[in-house]
Amino acid sequence: MDSLEEIFRRALKSKIFRNREKLLPDYVPEALPHREEEIRKIASVLAPSLRGEKPSNLFIYGLTGTGKTAVVRYVLSRLEASARESGQRVRAIYVNARYRDTPYRVLADIGEGVGVSIPFTGLSTGEIFARIVKKASDAGVIYIVVLDEIDFLVKRRGDDVLYKLTRINGELRSSKVSLIGITNSVDFIESLDPRVKSSLGEVELVFPPYNAEQLKDILSMRAREAFQPGALEEDVIPLCAALAAREHGDARRALDLLRVAGELAERGGAERVRKEHVMKAREEIERDRVVEVIRTLPLHGKLVLLAVISTTAGGRTHTTTGEVYDKYKLLTRRLSLETVTLRRVSGILAELDMLGVISGRVISKGRYGKTRVIELSADLSALLRALSEDITIGELTEEVGREALGKRDSLRRREGEEGR
DNA sequence: CCTCCACAGGAAGCGCAGGAGT
DNA sequence: ACTCCTGCGCTTCCTGTGGAGG
Predict the structure, then answer these.
(1) ∠ Cα A267 A269 A275 (to 5°)
(2) Strand locations in A108-193 (E)
(3) Beta carbon of A122 within 7 Å of strand B?
C-alpha cells in the first residue's frame, strides 16, 4: 500500500543526511569516546545518591568543547534511570549560567527543577531561595544541581548565591542537594571565596582538550549516525578535526563544522560533502556569530566598533583606546547624539574583546602612558554588513565602510604594482 | 631611581523599563 | 494604583601601573 507517508518520506529523503540532529550541540550521544575515565570518575562520585546519601560536590574544569557538559548529562541520565529502577528519588537539575547569568535566573531554574513556579521577575533572591527550601525540604529527594559555565554567574554577581547554595543542606530536612560546578576558566577557582572553594571543590576533575586524532574518532562516530553511508568524502572528517584541533581541541566546533558543511552540500545539491563545503562552513559560522554578536550590541557599542573600524582603516592594523574615543566622538556628533564617557568606551572595548570581535592587549608606552592596543579580529566585510543593519547608523556605516574597504583595496593595488 | 602619562578597571550608584505582588 | 524587585546602560570617582624619559 503506497501511503502518502511513503511518498513524503521519499521526497524528504536526503542524499546527505540520515539524521542531522545527531550533530547538534545539545545532543547527548550514547557513547563518548576518549572520556571513559571521566565518566567512571563522575559516576563513582555520584553513586552514593542511589543509597540515599548525599554525593560530594564536584568541580569540573576544561576548555570549551572538551565534553564536560555531554559527559555530565550522560552520567546524570544514566543515574536517574538507575535510581528509578531502584526506587530511590534522585533528581538532576541543569542550569547553564551563561544564559542564566544572574542569581535570580539561576535560582528560578533551580526552583523550577524542584517544582516551585517562579515568576520571570519581581521577587527578591532571598524569597526564591526560601520558596525552594520550603518546597524541597521534606520531599526526600537527592537533588544534583549542575551549574554549567558557573564563571559567568560569579564574574558578574559574585559568589553570594554559590555560598548560599553550598550551605542549603543545613536548611533541608529529608532532602539533600549536591552541586556540580562546571567552568572553562582556569583562574576561576582561585577567585572564589575560600569557603565556597573548599565546599564546591570536594572533588575536582579536569577535562583535557581533544587532539586531532581523538576528534577524528568522535566525528566518525557521530557521522555514522548522522550521514548517509558514503556521503562524506574521505578528507572531510580529518579537515574538520584539524581545524577544530587548532582551536584548542573544541569538539563542538568540529561538529558544527561538519553539520554546516553537510547543510551546505545538501542545499547546493551536491552528491557528497567535500572539503570546499567545510571551508565555506567555517566562513559561514564565523559570519553568523559576528552578526549575532553585533545585533545585540547597544547603540554606543556599535558606534565604538565603527570607530575601531574607521581608525584601523587603510594600512594601519591597530589603534588605541584614546584614538577610538576621539573618532567615536566625531561619529556621534555626525549623528547629533550624546557621547558616553571614556570609562564606558573602555568597558565597551573590553566587552568587544571578550566577544571576539576585536582583540586587544594592554601595553605600556612608558612616558607616553599605558593603553590597550586594539585590532579587528573578525572579518571586516562581515562586521560592516552586520552594522549596516542598524537603522540609526546604517548610512554612517556605509560611509565608513567605503572608506575602509576603499583604502584597503587601493593599498592592495599599490602593493601589486610595486611587486611588479 | 623616580616620575608621570594614558589609560585600565574596581566600586557605588542612578534612572529607567519591565514585571509581580498587594 | 501603588510598591518592590531586577537588569541594563551608563556616570562618577577612584586607585593602580609598565616603562621611557628625565
Answers:
(1) 85
(2) 142-148, 176-183
(3) yes
Which 8-state DSSP code applies to residue A33?
T
- Residue A382 maps to a domain: yes
A250 with A322, same domain: the answer is no
CA of A175 to C1' of B15 (A): 43
Q: What is the pLDDT of residues A209-230, one digit of tens each?
A: 999 999 999 999 999 999 988 8
Asked whether residue A330's C-beta has any atom of DNA/RNA strand B within 7 A, the reply is no
Residues A182 and A42 in one domain: yes
The domain boundary residue, chosen from A190, A207, A224: A207
- Cell numbers that stand for A397 in this block: 556605516
**Could you tell me the CATH number of the domain that includes residue A271?**
1.10.8.60
Strand duo A358-364 + A370-376: pairing = antiparallel
Closest nucleotide (C1' vs CA) to A347 is: B9
**In whole angstroms, what is the distance from residue A283 CA to residue A302 CA?**
22
At position A135, the amino acid (one-letter code) is K
Query: Count of CB atoms within 10 A of residue A99's CB?
Result: 11
Residues A310, A395, single domain; the answer is yes
Q: What is the pLDDT of residue A416?
A: 61
Answer with the one of A207, A225, A258 that is the final residue of a domain.
A207
Rg over alpha carbons for chain A, rounded to the nearest Å, is: 26
